[in-house]
Amino acid sequence: MSEETRQILDMNAFRPGVTQADPAVARRLRNLGAASVLFYREPIEMVAARGAWMEAKDGRRYLDCYNNVPSVGHSHPQVVAAVCDQIGRLNTNTRYVVEVVDTYIDALKAKLPESLENVVLTCSGSEANDLALRVARAATRARGVIVTETAYHGNTELTTQVSPSAWKRGGKPDWVECIPAPTPKTARNFGESVARAMAALQARGHRVAALLADSIFSSDGVYADPQGFLDAGVEAVRLAGGLFIADEVQPGFARTGSAFWGFARHGVVPDMVTMGKPMGNGFPMAGLAARPEHLAMFCRDVGYFNTFGGNPVAAAAGLAVLRVIADEGLEENAAWAGGRLKSGLGRLAKETGCLGEIRGAGLFLGVDIRKAESGRPDPDRTSGIINGLRDEGVLIGAAGKHGATLKIRPPLCLSAEEVDHFLGAFERVVAG
Amino acid sequence: MSEETRQILDMNAFRPGVTQADPAVARRLRNLGAASVLFYREPIEMVAARGAWMEAKDGRRYLDCYNNVPSVGHSHPQVVAAVCDQIGRLNTNTRYVVEVVDTYIDALKAKLPESLENVVLTCSGSEANDLALRVARAATRARGVIVTETAYHGNTELTTQVSPSAWKRGGKPDWVECIPAPTPKTARNFGESVARAMAALQARGHRVAALLADSIFSSDGVYADPQGFLDAGVEAVRLAGGLFIADEVQPGFARTGSAFWGFARHGVVPDMVTMGKPMGNGFPMAGLAARPEHLAMFCRDVGYFNTFGGNPVAAAAGLAVLRVIADEGLEENAAWAGGRLKSGLGRLAKETGCLGEIRGAGLFLGVDIRKAESGRPDPDRTSGIINGLRDEGVLIGAAGKHGATLKIRPPLCLSAEEVDHFLGAFERVVAG
After folding, report:
1. How high is the pLDDT of residue A17?
2. The complex's ipTM?
3. Is pLDDT of B350 > 60?
4. What CATH architecture is B3-72+330-431?
5. B163: pLDDT confidence band, cut at 50, 70 and 90?
6. Gene3D superfamilies, per this entry (chains A, B) (predicted)?
């Protein structure tokens, strides 16, 4: 990714030096230094959150349509109760047997393809993807990895190497090949795209170990359709002896409304599934589901133990999340509220020249912002809309190669009133 | 590390196939597969824990002298209260300003050398070390790393490459050089040892980026003395343009009794400090403290953001841990209780031929187990003592190149009665 594109993607991020008047922001900059990444030209200090709403220190309330970690709703009472109950009784590691840990893994496996019999719990999606890539390499005795051109898969050294959206200078290792994001126009060529990438790897002496893909292509700009396009790419990789790793950190846990996992919308059964963000509704936890024979091949070479991974408090949080999704019908609500949101945006697009393609599934939508005259991507207007929505009390973000796609990702509990609140604010901002 | 040594180190771990009669153990094996690492020939199912004690499903209570994660005591009420209060109000990420996060970082920085002005919060020590190595490489534009021969620094690809204790087959990259553990006999040659390692790296075309060391050398077998021996190695690395990364995941947070950090016992100021396990008393959190200019050099090349790292619940847990350590005088107690434990073990060593060197600081002790006749390391007897103590209701582990060092690491709140309880059980087991 070029420095220019990176700046565009960072456009709604705070740039040090611009606003240091706020002592809380100045303190944050002193503490995190160059690793500080605050949202918005004027960062927001948050003090509380509940359901779909966050509350700032100045008393303003914001409808959170961006953060997919508190996916069943901020501060959900059932998740909070589960964490508080367990943390007061026992918090230890997987070197002892603790019932709730296996109860959770059993519940998680009941949602996964039968072939993925083993689950390794980790702390972050980065750790899960880092492990998945090494398991794939051990299982295939190959090294090459295929990802999309603006993908993000984590922050460790290995996962950064397969995350083009994190590269500021250089960055692409020899064993990585990037394919274009599957747009509605090109998605049907996904299999050919993967085949070309394998040929390019082969030309550099690398057999393919894995195709690693987020099945909603979040940081590429949200590409969900047509359902089934993934299949040809997965088949191509398997024919060459490689594995398909479904990175479900973004689309997993009922987000897409039409299935519990993003890959299920495409009718494929992955060789490994990684998961993270919404898994514990904010309690730090993530994981990898794999076939026993693949995991065993990795464990012959290297030991793996994760101190915090699979602790009983995380398991209790994860179990509560699964129960809330079922009890509150959140998969169905994601479909329903997502549908209402998408058709509302569709109506506005007919009246407003700057709105291009509206994509996505369930409560994960991408809206291209374009120049009305030329139809070309308009990152400045995208930034203007995001900041305008912030002034209206609505939080969203941006994605895509050009940084010109609005990323809309509210909690799965979004109500009809909240959908309409979003649409009202959105209409005022795009008309303004 | 050879497969033989690895098996010795795993000696108190459960081997699949040995005891599958217990349905809870069989279920765990089905769930975690080859990644399952359970303690003891007959694994323990835990149901509760408080202070220094854990309780199993069969009603037996165990004095936990092994797990240094719940370092201020299992289920500590102040940490539990802090987590429950914060998780019910707000749990979000560092893209917003949240007061408790900066209050925590300020409190942590008050315990650290002044030069380490920036703190990046992560989920695990593995993530912290993975980032630290990359920051060191960016800051030095060099690649080589020096670690001790049985070191453990994490479970990501990059940190596994610098963790000889995790290598089952092959594993040592070209850019890694291992130095012997600093035994009481060899510690004074630590500087020469590091210089030789740098020459070996140079011969393979690598300048040194970092010396990465756990200043209590936990997995090497616990080597704490003489205080100050680290200094010569640190100086040698700096003269060659490299950095010293202090991995405080094991000795940090008052464990050694004589200082808040392990490196402080040696009078050195590290270029980076990584921390983890005891930081949140079990709440998943870890971090890296670095000089602003080093972090900035890394952030010019690659972006870094950690979704769960620095969440307000972790910050609240971490702040409670710092307060409990201060309020309950746990650094002083680690010194006092550790002293009582060490002298008790010393008395027993005079009466028992199998006890060799007793090393360590505060509540982190290593005891070599040797054959009475030859004085050689005795891994079988070590395993026998660990399993014998389990039968006495006391949990400890093993470490060291030969797997013949008892690793004793109780919570910092250990009382006089608990020290004596340990010593009584220990005496019965070594006499038996």
Report:
1. 58
2. 0.96
3. yes
4. Alpha-Beta Complex (3.90)
5. very high
6. Aspartate Aminotransferase, domain 1, Type I PLP-dependent aspartate aminotransferase-like (Major domain)
> A3-72+329-431 falls under which CATH superfamily?
Aspartate Aminotransferase, domain 1 (3.90.1150.10)
Closest to A430 measured CA to CA, from A353, A365, A363, A358: A353
The interface residues of chain A toward chain B in range 16-55, judged by CB-CB distance below 8 A, are 24-25, 27-28, 30-39, 43-49, 54
Predicted confidence (pLDDT) at residue B206 exceeds the cutoff of 60 = yes
Structural tokens at position A195: 């085949």
Q: Which residues contact A296 (CB under 8 A, 6 or more apart)?
A: B33, B34
What is the distance, to the nearest Å, from the Cα of residue A396 to the centroid of all Cα atoms in its chain? 14
Q: Residue A330 belongs to what H/E stretch?
A: helix A330-351
> Is there a contact between A82 and A92 (Cβ–Cβ < 8 Å)?
no
Tell me the two tokens of residue B142.
């060099």
CB nearest to A67's CB, from B92, B157, B300? B92
Residue B70: which of B309, B321, B400 has the closest Cα?
B321
Is the confidence at residue A239, as pLDDT, over 80? yes
Span A7-64, pLDDT tens digits = 445 555 666 655 567 999 999 999 999 999 899 989 999 999 999 999 999 999 999 9
d(CA B310, CA A33): 14
- The verdict on domain A77-327 having CATH code 3.40.1550.20 is no
Cβ-proximal residues to B401 (8 Å cutoff; 6+ apart), any chain: B1, B5, B149, B150, B181, B220, B221
**Over the stretch B91-117, which tens digit does the pLDDT of each residue have?**
999 999 999 999 999 999 999 999 999
**Shortest CB distance from A305 goes to which of B118, B155, B276?**
B155
Work out the burial of residue B102: count CB atoms within 10 Å of its CB; fewer than 13 is exposed, 13-18 middle, 19 or more buried: buried
What's residue B4's pLDDT?
47
What's the half-sphere exposure (Cβ side, CA atoms, 13 Å) at B301? 19
Is there a contact between B286 and B121 (Cβ–Cβ < 8 Å)? yes
Q: Which two tokens stand for residue A299?
A: 């464990």
A261 and A248 Cβ atoms separated by less than 8 Å: yes
- B261 CB contacts (<8 Å, ≥6 apart)? B111, B112, B215, B246, B248, B251, B252, B273
| Residue B2 contacts A, CB cutoff 8 Å | no
Are A360 and A222 in contact by the 8 Å Cβ rule? The answer is yes
CB A280 within 8 A of CB A269: no
Q: What is the pLDDT of residues A197-231, one digit of tens each?
A: 999 999 999 999 999 999 999 999 999 999 999 99
Distance (Å, whole) CA A295 – CA A112: 16
Q: Where along chain B do the CATH 3.90.1150.10 domains lie?
A: 3-72+330-431
Copy the structure tokens of residue A315. Answer: 């398991």
Cβ–Cβ contact B80 with A under 8 A: yes
Q: Which of residues 259-318 of A touch B (CB under 8 A)?
A: 276-277, 282-285, 290, 292, 295-296, 298-311, 313-314
In chain B, residues with a C-beta closer than 8 Å to the C-beta of A80 are 84, 87-88
CA B255, B256, B257, B261 dihedral sign is negative
What pTM was computed for the model? 0.97
* Residue A395 token pair: 């939080």
Residue B9 in this model has a pLDDT that exceeds 70: no
B61 interfaces chain A, CB cutoff of 8 Å: no
Residue range(s) in chain B whose domain bears CATH number 3.40.640.10: 77-327
B149 touches chain A (CB under 8 A): no
| Among A31, A309, A314, beta carbon nearest to B102 | A31
Burial of residue A41 (CB within 10 Å: 0-12, 13-18, 19+) is middle
